[in-house]
Design a protein that fits this description.
By secondary structure, the protein is of the alpha/beta class. The chain folds into 2 domains: 204 residues, Spore Coat Polysaccharide Biosynthesis Protein SpsA, Chain A; 44 residues, no CATH class. Helix 7 packs parallel to helix 8 and helix 8 packs antiparallel against helix 9. The longest helix is centred in the last third of the chain and has 20 residues. The chain is globular, with a radius of gyration of 19 Å. The C terminus is likely disordered.
């Protein structure tokens, strides 16, 4: 998979996903002039030892390392002009990396994401408008920017970080993910800053990646997940609308979280399993 000069560097963030990380690496063997860089954040399942059979770069980090910070560690070792950052529970379909490279030739595009599929082959929505009062009131993300996600190139507000591609120059110009964000929301934040810099974010459906989803955090409790998702949503609302305008929508998000907590208190163990 590797040569002396790389066109693409694929950064894989891994945490206790040994089997899936191996499948991700296996799906990358088809691509020439690329390098795989696995950033393993303190896995205890033998990931670091198992992946040595593949021709890749291994970066080890403490288990306390957040996703954004782990991505920076990987990019620091990258030599490719194109950077792809993905979860370890992804598998790349034939031609996906070359197609993502090709769409980034357009200098107006800052960030490109492939069409994501669930394990069963169904479409996995991975885009949305930036959160707003309306989306908080409705209790769901606004995905109306894309009518038919099976074909075409769609300009969207943001794409999920399970797999994104961008030029190394763009990553550097935007200073990459915000390393202060531990979990969730680093993708929305990056897409927002790309827009502020005059760059578009696109969902590029000609490139396809399977995302098995949620496999890197099976031990996380519902409370942990809810807390981090809430922090991300409050931050995203503040970023997109400013601290004052965001307050009504943030109040709705907090109210939904409080209602979930109260409901859980009536169910023993609801917040722990």
């Amino acid at each position: 998979m590797q040569s002396d000069r790389m066109d693409v560097s694929i950064i894989i963030i891994s945490h206790n996903t040994c089997a899936l990380t191996l499948k991700c690496l296996a799906s990358l063997e088809q691509f020439e002039n690329s390098e795989a860089i696995v950033v393993d954040t303190g896995s205890a399942d033998g990931t670091a030892e198992a992946i040595t059979k593949y021709d890749n770069i291994i970066v080890t980090a403490p288990s306390s390392t957040g996703y954004a910070a782990a991505a920076h560690l990987g990019v620091a070792r990258a030599s490719g002009e194109t950077i792809i950052i993905c979860n370890a529970d992804t598998e790349f379909h034939p031609g996906s990396i070359q197609r993502l490279q090709a769409v980034l030739i357009d200098d107006r595009i800052g960030i490109a994401a492939p069409r994501l599929l669930n394990t069963d082959g169904s479409l996995q929505p991975s885009w949305a408008r930036f959160p707003s009062f309306a989306s908080e009131w409705n209790g769901r993300l606004d995905r109306s920017e894309v009518d038919h996600a099976e074909t075409g190139t769609h300009v969207v507000s943001w794409v999920g970080g399970a797999c994104i591609a961008l030029k190394r120059a763009t990553w550097d110009a935007l200073n990459g993910y915000n390393p202060d964000i531990m979990f969730y929301g680093e993708d929305t934040d990056l897409c927002w800053r790309a827009r502020q810099a005059g760059l578009t974010t696109v969902l590029f459906t000609d490139a396809t990646v399977t995302h098995h989803g949620g496999q890197s955090s099976p031990a996380r409790t519902p409370l942990w997940l809810r807390q981090h998702l809430l922090r991300a949503r409050l931050r995203d609302l503040r970023t997109a609308h400013g601290p004052l305008v965001a307050i009504p929508a943030q109040c709705i998000a907090l109210a939904r979280y409080a209602a979930w907590l109260l409901k859980g208190f009536g169910t023993p163990g609801a917040h722990r399993s």
